[in-house]
Design goal:
Elements lengths: L2 H59 L9 H14 L1 H13 L3 E8 L4 E4 L15 H6 L2 H9 L4 E10 L2 E11 H55 L11 H36 L3 E6 L4 E4 L3 H5 L3 H4 L4 H4 L5 H12 L3 E7 L5 E10 L1 H5 L6 E10 H49 L4 H28 L7 E4 H18 L2 E6 L6 E4 L1 H17 L5 E9 L3 E7 L7 H4 L17 H11 L3 E7 L3 E9 L2 H4 L18
Parallel strand pairs: 11-13
Antiparallel strand pairs: 1-2, 1-4, 3-4, 5-6, 5-9, 7-8, 8-9, 10-12, 13-14, 14-16, 15-16
The chain binds adenosine-5'-diphosphate and magnesium ion.
Magnesium ion binds next to helix 16.
Amino acid sequence: MSLKSKLVLAITSLVFLVTVVLSLVYVNELLQSVVTQSYDTNVLVARQIRYALQLALENGLKDQQVDPNDQAKLRQLAAAAVRDNSGLTAVVSSVNRYSPTVYDISISDNRGKALLTTGTTGDDNPIPLRPNYQRLRDSNAVELVKIVFGTPSVYDVVLPLERNGESFATVHIGVRTTLLRALYEPELKAALTLMSLALATSLIVAFLLGNLALRPMEELSMQLDYWTATAEETPTEEVETDTVVRVSNKIERIGQRMRNVEEVFSALKENLDQVLGNLQDGILLFTGDGRAVLVSNAVKRFLHQDRNVLLGQHAREIFDRSTVLGKTVRDAWDAGMTLVQEEIVTESGNRIEVSLDFIHDDRASDEGGSGEGLGALLTLHDQESVEVIENELELSRRMAAIGRLTSGVGHEVKNPINAIVVHLELLKTKLGNSSAPANGHLAVIDSEIHRLDRVVQTLVDFSRPVEVKLIEYDLRHVVADVVTLAAAEMSTRQVILTSVLPDYPLIAKVDIDLLKQAVLNVVQNGAQAMPEGGKLEVMLLDEGKSAIIQVRDEGWGISEDLREKIFDLYFTTKKGGSGIGLAMTYRILQLHHGSIDVQSELGRGSVFQLRIPLSATDRGRRHPQPAVIGTTKGLEG
Ligand SMILES: Nc1ncnc2c1ncn2[C@@H]1O[C@H](COP(=O)(O)OP(=O)(O)O)[C@@H](O)[C@H]1O
Ligand SMILES: [Mg+2]
């Protein structure tokens, strides 16, 4: 059932209920009053008759000599007096004829026999026994209705006449219920008519009220239609006729759409933030009234102000004419002129390309309007840094080319070495044990050839392109694993290895095995630099955009002129050293877009710092988490 029909039904039944209750009360009152009224009239009539009866008896018995003990004679005289009195009979018959409720009138003697009657029983016969009218007056509403509308019966209004202190005769006025009903019915009809009229009115009023109450809902529905129509090309067919259900459906649909839009929006925003965060160019987006709503991180490099400070500021507040950049932008802004890659040189000598675009609403201008300004986009492009990046790119391109070359050369060299080794073996067997002096030379050639072979093999291995498998990983695990890997070797050297890790994860995109190898190389070097033992400390530090793995030893240190060379392949100062460790570490950090640097003091020790960029997405959501590594201490602890 629709809300409207429910509303109409509720109002109607309420009005109906009220009408019925009121009508019942009214009808009952009416009935009671009819009963009481007819009683009052009939008692009055009975009194009148009794008075007439008294006069008749006094007149009739006035001149008669009667023995008071002769009852029969007395009754006969009384009956004659009553029946012969014209006044009494006239009163009785006129009342019987004209009173609307009187059925019959009887005057009985003290034994219940009729002295005079208008009923069918006839004189001197016992008058019929009837319930007293008083019963009607005492009954409640329901009984009264039953009596009046039930089988017709007669109730008597009784008035006794006493003589010398005892009952001598009784006046009976019979009131028939049908006569009562006839009196009552027209009034009842009027009441019923009124009731049905009230009902009909209430129905109409309820209908109008229902419509009136639901009209705002219709308007709401239309409003919602407008919204859904603009957002959706093909509105789904409306089958529901109930306004309320329709409205709630529409609200539900709009809510769903808003949630979708919100999701898309937040995804877009995240993407945009990421893109802006990684962008080298400074980007500022202004609204129609000139306020900055979007500022990329790189803007700080150009304007030396944090993006949070710039957000919401007016273009005129951001750019004043005190700097070259500010003046250029401000002049263009005030003139409403676009800038296309305008190159300027700042006070500090940086070359910047400035572009300013005013965004207009094309639709508005198509329709003949002036094309209202939607905003402006300012881009700042740092020529220098682009050149630096280009140089780096060029460098790595050249490195790759050299790598290809060395591995090619390596392979070319390995073949002749193999041939030499084979022929050397042949030579050895041919010479046999006969010439001892030559054997000494052969042994030298043999060992040198093998050394050459190792060197070439290393070169080939090292310059082979590495396949890097980058995954997001907590750097604390890398450090912890290296510490456990190295622990055994450390204890044989009396080196005490400690590590300090933050109590929250530092996530970076790394190749886990390669990075472990890189850290392990540095840790091993540190231990090797302390032949007498000492303290070796590994620390993981959070530097905002990147993490630093710091390895500090108390070894012999590195002299300044060696510091340049230690990262070269094959450079070593150790007796059995290979000179590969730091070169490999350097390469691995390059692959991670990281860097390595060293500080050292001869005789006191060295500090190696490995810098690894952190994942951009992780930076914003760092929060304390229990470290899963058991043997380490927290930064504060
Ligand atoms: N912690 C250190 N303290 C002193 N010297 C070091 C340290 N780490 C590296 N070096 C120097 O750098 C050289 C190159 O190291 P590396 O590339 O690991 O080769 P290797 O360990 O085989 O010598 C070492 O021979 C040593 O002279
Ligand atoms: Mg080493």
